[in-house]
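Hey all, quick one. A colleague (J.T.) asked me to put the 2-acetamido-2-deoxy-beta-D-glucopyranose job into the tracker so the inputs and the structure tokens live in one place instead of scattered across chat threads. No bug as far as I know, just bookkeeping. Sequence used:
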Amino acid sequence: MIRTISSPTATASVFLAVLVFLTCLSSEAEPNLLNSSDLPLVPDLPLVPDLPLVPEILEFLDQRLAVIYPVIQAFKSIITLDPLGITKTWQGPDICNYQGFYCDSPPDNNSATTLASIDFNGFQLFAPTLEGFLDQLPDLALFHANSNNFGGMIPSSIAKLPYLYELDLSNNRFSGPFPSVLLGMPDLTFLDLRFNSFTGSVPPQIFAQNLDVLFLNNNDFDQRLPDDIGSNHVLYLTLANNKFTGPIPRSISRALSSLTEVLFLNNQFTGCIPYEIGLLNEAVVLDIGYNRLTGPLPASLACLDKAEQLNFAGNSLHGIVPEVICWLGIGKNLMNFSLSNNYFTNVGPWCRALIERGILDVRNNCIPNLPSQRPVSECAGFFSRSRFLCPRIWTYNYVPCSRPHPSSSDVPLIPGSAPTP
Ligand SMILES: *[C@@H]1O[C@H](CO)[C@@H](O)[C@H](O)[C@H]1NC(C)=O
Ligand SMILES: *[C@@H]1O[C@H](CO)[C@@H](O)[C@H](O)[C@H]1NC(C)=O
Ligand SMILES: *[C@@H]1O[C@H](CO)[C@@H](O)[C@H](O)[C@H]1NC(C)=O
């Protein structure tokens, strides 16, 4: 009967029927969906070469690749823009050589070959969702998709991917609240959500997770940081360019003690900088520029032995710049210390030495006899408006480590009775 049909549309529908039949047969008989040697041969089918639906006879390197082949092809079919022609390479059974796809043996079987990582960085692909793709790649360990145009929801079933530990969705079009599915992924160590449009608040549990890297900058998160942000071992945390508000919590030192980069710039943090900031002793970069912070600089910052860059520019900080902090640029590693656009009124000899060496930037403050300062009227206006009430003000002069004393340059400062911070 099949052989008597001749019109092209009828032929196409027969092919469709055969295709559906074959698919059902093979999936019932064998999990090996695309291993054609198990399929019954249908003899004498009319050949219609330009019909795209003809099932290809594909030989996969491994069963695990056969299983994800239709997943990849389905994703390819929803990609609406591919300016670099990446997906042209996504055809045939050799998935390990598709552009952006990388194979390896999975942790549960050394002799198997599977799709272990995806690197779509910079591919500029447009797709409305990753649902049905990212969550259907069971052996995936790394997914990097910086600078694409993926959107929609982050698929909730990615929590079931047992090996996924790096997820980079930066510079895409994700929006809505923080994807709570990520809270259920204790093995995630690298999470990069930068440059999207996430809003609302970041659940505090994420700070207590096992992450080494948490990049949240350039979104629209607008919340106070919880007073107790838990304790964790994050090495890189960027909150920059959001709308975080409220004070920097005192728990920061406990919570973020292994942090090497503290990037809080361009938010709306208010209040005084807590003494505890000086206990972040792994910090190499500490950037709290362009917030709404006020009060003095805590002298505890002088204990950041590893600090190379300190940025407090663009706040309403005032008072004397503690000399002992400037010593970091003389005896330690400090190379860039920016206090510009604040209301500081005094710097001592060590700080002046750093200004001369181009390390310390105090432009646009209120320091008499230095160039590029604010007009006197502006400074007077600020000081007449402001009330300087920092909590625990006695902690601001306390240096919780041994440092040379500014007035007797070789004698280390021996802290007296420690104030209880
Ligand atoms: C297909 O199945 C046959 C027999 O069932 C097997 O020998 C062959 O290795 C399979 N091919 C692939 C690619 O799995
Ligand atoms: C490991 O993978 C190989 C290749 O896919 C397969 O033949 C073998 O059965 C697998 N072993 C186990 C224990 O699953
Ligand atoms: C110092 O840091 C500030 C703020 O992060 C930056 O704008 C400036 O370019 C840096 N200066 C140098 C010399 O690296």
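Adding what we noticed when we looked at it: The chain is about 15% helix and 20% strand. The CA atoms of residues 116 and 140 lie 5 Å apart.
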